[in-house]
TrEMBL record, chains A, B:
Claim: Aminoacyl-tRNA synthetase is one of the keywords in the record: no
Enzyme's top EC category: transferase
Cofactor(s) of this protein: Mg(2+)
Pathway: Cofactor biosynthesis; molybdopterin biosynthesis
Keyword Magnesium appears in the UniProt entry: yes
Protein name (Swiss-Prot/TrEMBL): Molybdopterin molybdenumtransferase
Residues covered by the MoaB/Mog domain: 176-313
A GO-annotated cellular component: cytosol
EC numbers, comma separated: 2.10.1.1
Amino acid sequence: MSGLLSVEEARARLLALFSPVGTESVPLAAAGGRVLAEDAVATRPQPPFDASAMDGYAIREEDHRAGNRLAVIGASAAGARFEGAVRPGTAVRIFTGAPVPDGADRVVIQENTTRVEDSVTLDEAAPGGTNIRPAGGDFMPGDRIAAPRRLAPADLALLAAMNIARPVLRRRPVVALIATGDELAMPGETPGPDQILCSNNFGLKAMLEAAGAEARMLPIARDTPESLTAAFDLAAGADLVVTLGGASVGEHDLVRATALGRGLDLSFYKIAMRPGKPLMAGRLGTTPMIGLPGNPVSAMVCGLLFVLPAVRRMLGLPEEAALRFPARLEAALEPNGPRAHYMMSRAEPEPGGWRIEAFGRQDSSLLSVLSRANALLVRPPHDPARASGDRVEFLWI
Amino acid sequence: MSGLLSVEEARARLLALFSPVGTESVPLAAAGGRVLAEDAVATRPQPPFDASAMDGYAIREEDHRAGNRLAVIGASAAGARFEGAVRPGTAVRIFTGAPVPDGADRVVIQENTTRVEDSVTLDEAAPGGTNIRPAGGDFMPGDRIAAPRRLAPADLALLAAMNIARPVLRRRPVVALIATGDELAMPGETPGPDQILCSNNFGLKAMLEAAGAEARMLPIARDTPESLTAAFDLAAGADLVVTLGGASVGEHDLVRATALGRGLDLSFYKIAMRPGKPLMAGRLGTTPMIGLPGNPVSAMVCGLLFVLPAVRRMLGLPEEAALRFPARLEAALEPNGPRAHYMMSRAEPEPGGWRIEAFGRQDSSLLSVLSRANALLVRPPHDPARASGDRVEFLWI
């Protein structure tokens, strides 16, 4: 298999075609799962004042003795502080989150007190914390959420607490999907006797959108230069053009010729992997283009291994070696050939880790198998025969 | 801590308030991540005909001998089959995915042939498979994708291949989020000196939407019956009303009183867990209501442990014990008290599994800590002291 690139080398070459897309300021409520493009910097402390962590009474530490009876001189509520000061022998009723009044340096929790009219008696002097959250204990002005970062739910809450109403995010990279082939009918149509349904573009669209891209599904391109040209025209403005099918060595391959006719600066990768025929990649003017195989499993696996990293790069996220997890092999495997094999598999938790079993049928046309898989068992080139119980590695899909 | 419910028991009681929402037929391109509500049944076989797995020549097995020279009598392309039959001594040029012509029962791959004008010579008789994908090898009429199922990208491709253009999905359950409190300002506003920013509802919204719900963020309800009443009125039509804050035992708790005034059939759970004050749950007429604590970390953890399972139930998904993963503890922990403790932690892969370290500060007001966490280390009630290297369990967040 000399002349074939490893998956890693092909991915590195392909990623060199990409750079981060532009940024946009987005309302916070719409920022979940999006990618922060500029550091978000707090301009205020949180909490903005010493705040009570409990419902109880704000007192002076010197008054903190079991049996001590204090005059209740007011109340401090969240949103409405007590404006006076706690003097010796006095207490202020206080609620969780409320500002601690001047003079007080402890909150006793209400369960440890007895209230009678305008006085409160401390039942016990509880050791330990003061039940006060100091100003700035969560964050201080200048504290930041560092970009790039994919925003998780807790990040949204933190941005809100920082009063960052419109964070600066990477815009969603736009990926145009062009399925090609005379044999394809769209779901909802009645396919002719020689036709099959177009499926790759639906799978890729869902995969790309879950990763933060916007996928534009274009009309199916037929196997004519005119139809392919029309599809490329419709892809104008996209950040990435992905073709599906037509990248093989067959005579019916027109995608390559048509793209070359439009000025494609072609890098064509022959990759030492299964599933996956040659991957086409290059630049159409300033726009990167990736040609994926037409077989559905190949298209989805190549989408995972090559297109998703490209989306991450466009989102400004660091390159991330796809995390490989160890697992215990359930059923023995034959020796692998010269190409890395990404086998459709099912991984299940077991005490202390994971067990995995590759499906018996691995043909790259079998969507029903891929749909049952939750993992790709990764076999390196020339991996020897594996016995049940061996340690192997897998990727989640 | 007698009288307190375990997390599991509180969750079971809470889930009894919920049932699956209705269904809707949705265009396939918009179905990614949604939940299939009715089995999707194939009405056609895939492939619909015996199809070539390779580019090459369709021949009869009896002609499969090294050196044999066959007359090429036509071509079968994907989408345009060869209408004749392959007779002894003949071959048909064929491309991947094309129908195999009558009479042929093997495809020889083109790399193993030599083509000269209208004849082709077989260079070698390759053993092994016929390179033919049999009709129905992927799926047959009547094969199904069983509901309920959250649709992964490969499922979308499979639905497309089955020609199911509008699968029947659960509609997205609508969750109304009501943040309460005089102390709250909305991001973008200038908070008063005693105010903090409203953050829980942004975090919850992102969490719920990632799980497949539609979150409606209502205006902040102030600590008056009128304001709370207005908020409940705005929540009309939601499948679930979630209030944030105001569920504590403090005098400023008006949420409970207002909801009771509107006919709330209250179940109030005191749960043996940290973080998390009492959880309020019940029914307002036919609409379930959950009252979450106001502290941001408590709200997010209770969202994860109680609201997400409710969303799953509304989506018709089976109850799923949150998957606990084993990990090696990095730094020793004190004995735990009588309540289960969900500690904000960082889990990182290591050879053979995961290692985890709980953050030193666990106060439920600390969003900056939650934002750095990727896991909750779960400590059962009365868990003894743990040493570095001990095996513990965690949940992903």
